[in-house]
Design goal:
The protein is built from twelve helices and seven strands. The chain is α+β, with helices and mostly antiparallel strands. This is Acyl-CoA dehydrogenase.
Length: 399
């Protein structure tokens, strides 16, 4: 039976990253970071990328990466999730970099991936309709459901004059992670009109000064996951990959990215859940009792023990899903388990504080809001499980 043993190198990554985040990503530092225009601490990101090389972990060596694979990236995400540290790691290294590596031309890969690896270029994946989990194949078949809008209208449309060399994009995408600050946007858009409608991916470079592009940071339940509304009004764009690229290739690449992203997201949720549980245990150790003076420690201990089992089970599923040869559905199942573990641990952390535990006045709200927001952005858990069951053929023919 395969195990998800952590190597000595991975233990060192964990230790170094945990020490750094403990120093520079406490609750006060997080509140200061999310209040910046970027939504994260740019200095901390420079250290995470330039010194620790987090965005380079899973990238090929020929493009400045270190090729340590999804397990090492998941371990790093577990630590950033434990600290709830806002950063462009998820949007840049987990969502966009694999798509450029899979679909980009050699020129595009050689130009963009080394800059992603060293942290000098941040990216965002813009999906119309706010349907990121569907586009990634996590909650449905991205080839069968119209997540990107119709061929006639809706979503983002890509057009090019007959015989022209340049594409332009028109439409809107919402809930774009780090979309307001990313230096590069990767936009999913329809091309070909209604008769030959197909979904392709386009690069919008120099996003800050792109003509016709409007980006607005939007209010988010979880401020540590910055989101934006992206409006494109005949914005010049470059097709990702060769001109002969077909929609099935793009959709397959999105689904493959979804499988690895699910593992990274699950690792983040596991890290946050374990931190929330540690807070609850530490509070009891300091003499606090839920429910006031009548609260019973003996009544709380079994609940915390059950939570520990739930969190550690999610962690085991997550790192088994990160192993080479894992089943394609493993990532989505691990993410479902991790989201539920985070929700339960966050609720336990907030419980003794009543209503204040879910407001901005207490640190417990950070975990509570992360749990709720992740369910909205990447779930819900029952949809993740239903799609995994459908793909595996549990209810009949394999999808």
């Amino acid at each position: 039976m395969r195990t998800a043993a952590v190597t000595e190198e991975q233990q060192e990554i964990r230790r170094t990253l945990r020490e750094l985040l403990a120093q520079r990503a406490g609750p006060a530092e997080i509140r200061a970071a999310v209040a910046t225009p970027e939504g994260y601490d740019a200095g901390l990101w420079a250290t995470l990328a330039g010194t620790l090389g987090l965005p380079a972990i899973a990238l090929p060596e020929e493009y400045g990466g270190v090729a340590r694979g999804p397990a090492a990236l998941a371990l790093a995400c577990e630590e950033t999730g434990r600290a709830l540290a806002p950063s462009p790691l998820l949007a840049t290294a987990v969502l966009v970099a694999p798509l450029i590596a899979a679909l980009g031309t050699e020129r595009q890969r050689a130009e963009l991936l080394p800059r992603i690896a060293d942290g000098s270029l941040t990216c965002a994946l813009a999906v119309p309709g706010g349907s990121l989990p569907l586009a990634l194949g996590l909650t449905g078949d991205n080839a069968a459901e119209p997540w990107a809008g119709g061929g006639r209208s809706g979503g983002v449309q890509a057009t090019r004059p007959a015989g022209g060399e340049h594409w332009s994009l028109y439409g809107e995408a919402v809930h774009v992670l780090d979309g307001h600050s990313a230096g590069l946007l990767l936009v999913a858009a329809h091309a070909g009109g209604f008769p030959r409608s197909r979904t392709l991916l386009f690069l919008v470079r120099g996003a800050e000064g792109a003509a016709g592009l409007v980006r607005r940071r939007q209010p988010a339940l979880d401020a540590t996951r910055s989101q934006a509304t992206i409006q494109l009004r005949d914005v010049p764009a470059e097709l990702l990959g060769e001109e002969t690229g077909e929609a099935p290739t793009v959709l397959a690449a999105l689904a493959a990215t979804g499988r690895t992203a699910a593992v990274a997201l699950a690792a983040e949720a596991v890290g946050a859940a374990r931190a929330a549980l540690d807070h609850a245990v530490a509070r009891l150790g300091a003499g606090e009792r839920p429910g006031g003076p009548a609260g019973s420690l003996r009544a709380v201990e079994p609940r915390l023990a059950e939570l520990l089992v739930q969190v550690e089970s999610a962690r085991s599923l997550t790192f088994c899903a990160a192993l080479d040869g894992a089943e394609p559905e493993a990532g989505a199942l691990a993410l479902a388990q991790a989201l539920e573990a985070l929700r339960a641990a966050a609720a336990e952390t907030a419980r003794p504080h009543g209503g204040i535990g879910v407001t901005g006045e207490h640190d417990a709200q950070l975990y509570f809001k992360r749990a709720a927001a992740d369910e909205l952005l990447f779930g819900p858990a029952h949809r993740l499980r239903a799609r995994a069951a459908e793909r595996s053929g549990l209810f009949g023919e394999v999808a």
